[in-house]
């Protein structure tokens, strides 16, 4: 008996349940992250090999040669032909992702490549989309140029009423760059009323923080560049498909279209992705806890304000607003949609609105541990003066992506940076 399965086997009913039949229960996320690809082992080496080949030998036995048009994709797990279709390292990566995300998963060259493939496959006339990562809006604009695809505003009820059967409600949660969450159960009800698909960009809350399939989402998308990669060294995108949709042909359809779009993940990225997913739970839980401690500390300093200690003074003087899902009103009600949606903690990204754009521009260079760089999800903490990479964002905004360092060190770094900025402003 081998553990784990391909996305196709999962779509056909195997998957975490197959493991459950051996252990009498589903294995934990941590164990699945280490073992869901064990079935692909062909060598005694414990660490997975890296295959760089783009092409694969056909069988030497002519009786085993099957023309492409006669291959049953569900029975072709072992058949490798050309790496634009699939390759051993991305197969491993996808086996882990399928088990971790709870639905058959495909990998792509980047998060935007995954988003593009999803929209091409579902081929809506309209997409309702809210704030969030500007690149996804850019992809929709490109498609508008090709086929007139219309972008509607997710949070405008009038716009939602324009949606028709086969259109998409696309929800990013938590949102980039604020880290605030949106209610998936609400949008599932809307999608059902309107006959639309519900797709989610869950990049900011990977497992174990959030499981969008619990809310009936049709396709879960991730920029795997962030927490799945986790070390700021690989670009990747992921689509996980609701098991019912996958079994109804969506997995085969997306796989077939990916072969033509050519936006597969590379061999190195597949290998790095496996290396990284082994520690997903450890990293994400630590990052989430670190972020929560920093948000709690900043919020308490802000509340204490000028009547508090010297540090409270500095935070209150410079930080106008802190944004994070843990600060949304619903976060303090255990029965709320937010607590149901994020039962294991909040995301590791939050944002700070400083008093002015000039403050936001100057703070990053005062920090010693936080790197000033875009992106998020890696083990190293980052801040970004978001105006550096987003043309439409409030110029006072600093996005904070919390890494795995000791949280007290991160707190002290933020404090010394804010103090240095405060001192500079008073000169
Ligand atoms: C929420 C979100 N979705 C999608 C993307 C795009 O991912 P990628 O950069 O891997 O294409 C990003 C990138 O920052 C993101 O933050």
Automatic annotation (TrEMBL):
Pfam families: Cys_Met_Meta_PP. InterPro entries: Cys/Met-Metab_PyrdxlP-dep_enz (IPR000277), Cys_met_metab_PP (IPR054542), PyrdxlP-dep_Trfase (IPR015424), PyrdxlP-dep_Trfase_major (IPR015421), PyrdxlP-dep_Trfase_small (IPR015422). The modification N6-(pyridoxal phosphate)lysine is found at residue 226. Its cofactor is pyridoxal 5'-phosphate. Coiled coil: none annotated. GO terms for cellular component: cytoplasm. GO terms for molecular function: carbon-sulfur lyase activity; pyridoxal phosphate binding; transferase activity. Keywords: Pyridoxal phosphate, Transferase. GO terms for biological process: transsulfuration. Transmembrane segments: none annotated. Belongs to the trans-sulfuration enzymes family. This is Pyridoxal phosphate-dependent transferase.
